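From: lab user (bench 3)
To: helpdesk
Subject: output format question, protein + manganese (II) ion

Hello, I'm new to running complex predictions and I'm not sure whether the block I got back is the full result or only part of it. Here's what I submitted:
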Amino acid sequence: MEREFEKLLKRFGEYGSKKGCEVVVRAWEFAKLAHAGQKRLTGDPYVSHPLEVAKILVGWRLDKTSVVAGFLHDTIEEGGAREADIIEEFGEEVARLVDGVTKITDIRLKGSKEKVFVENLRKMLLVMASDLRVVLVKLADRLHNMRTLAALSKEKQLENALETLEIYAPLAERLGIGEVKGKLEDLAFPYVYQKAYARVKKESRLRYVGAQEEIDMMKAELKKRLKKEKLVCRIAGRKKHLYSLWKKLERPEIDWNFDEINDIVALRIVVKRTVECYEALGIVHSIYKPVPHIGISDFIAQPKPNGYRSIHTKVFGPKGRVVEVQIRTEEMNEQAEYGIAAHWAYTEAKAGGAEDRVLEKGGVVAGRKLNWVKQLVNWQEEIKDSEEFLRAVKFDAFNHRNFVFSPKGDVYDLPSRATPVDYAFEVHTDLGNYIKGAKVNGRVVSLDYQLKSGDVVEIVKSKNPRKPGKNWLEFAVTTTARRKIKRAMEN
Ligand code: MN
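Helpdesk reply: Thanks, we reran it on our side. This is the complete output you should expect:
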């Protein structure tokens, strides 16, 4: 274990300050002391767990405070330490993080105690809003616990795996940490949906092999051509995570037809600068023809609301299979994989730069992510009724999202089953009060029309403000819209 720690320290030293390294060493000593003699259910010494958690956090290149909190996160609840010890040794900030992680751990989704769950969730959101690093440490904790889930009882396995799918994976997604979301889902998948897991695994095996061969051919060809054009880049193949593959196979329009799935493996080209993304796109298309209609998505010009940027193009590969090629810069790649965590990485490099400044560095992207958290916190203050709050959180925040566009090209992030009415209230209350009709992709639709990702939505405005329709509450799904409709009907 000491050797593992040395490795961690070396990696941390690559971006962390000298002072940071000293604190990390002290945190390791503290954790060993607090967990002395304790064992995990796997039979390993308990302290191997905080060590692994800290290792994950260093892998995300997080700042010293997060890494220290990773080492200490179980020392009070599970070990022999007291909060006062942590404050004395490491300061208030670390103690606050450790406390936050403990609070989130208390949240249990299952069982009859839904009221308790809501209360904890409220607390968690408050902690989250004050410091998002709490969630990052918690996600690292959950990641390692999922890797060692086999040691728990059948009942605990199912409980933890379900919670991972329902709370933690969507949380990672909302924070833009796509890599972690995929890992968590794949770890939980076999415990929750045993049969489906076995089937997807078996049926996809040959598909992966076939697709891989094609990708390898393309990789070689592209490498040659990009080099000839003097474009410095890295090319990597990416396998689709099994859980998201299953979700896609289950869609009614796909219905387990693997031929309908074009991104089972994808090719990723990572370049240095944004303009080079477009150069690379040109080169790709000069060799492989884009597939008509489903061809190109430019998430650089129009990022997804969770901040995701990249160009995706679907082309015909050398054997005629449709292959997705993703093109992005190193910075975009880091953001896509580590999301908000990527922003924290800068703190350590800048040695103690103010938190706000770091978040600002991410500009609109980080701002949007924070807005999401802020919105949840506003609700928790506004909505007194636990049931409504729970519905708001589960539904609006964690459900599958659709990205729709205004006629001017602004992106809005709405839950699935959202309608033009939800869209209108999302854009502005005033727009919601002037709804006469709606058009989607230029065609007139009814107000209960269910929007899909990529739809361009236009609200046909009335001259004067109108009362909401009597039946709107039957189909409006977002909390914002439902609250405003209710209020308008009361007036
Ligand atoms: Mn833990």
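A quick orientation on your result: The beta strands are 233-239, 265-271, 296-298, 311-316, 322-329, 401-405, 411-415, 435-440, 443-445, 457-461. Let us know if anything else is unclear.
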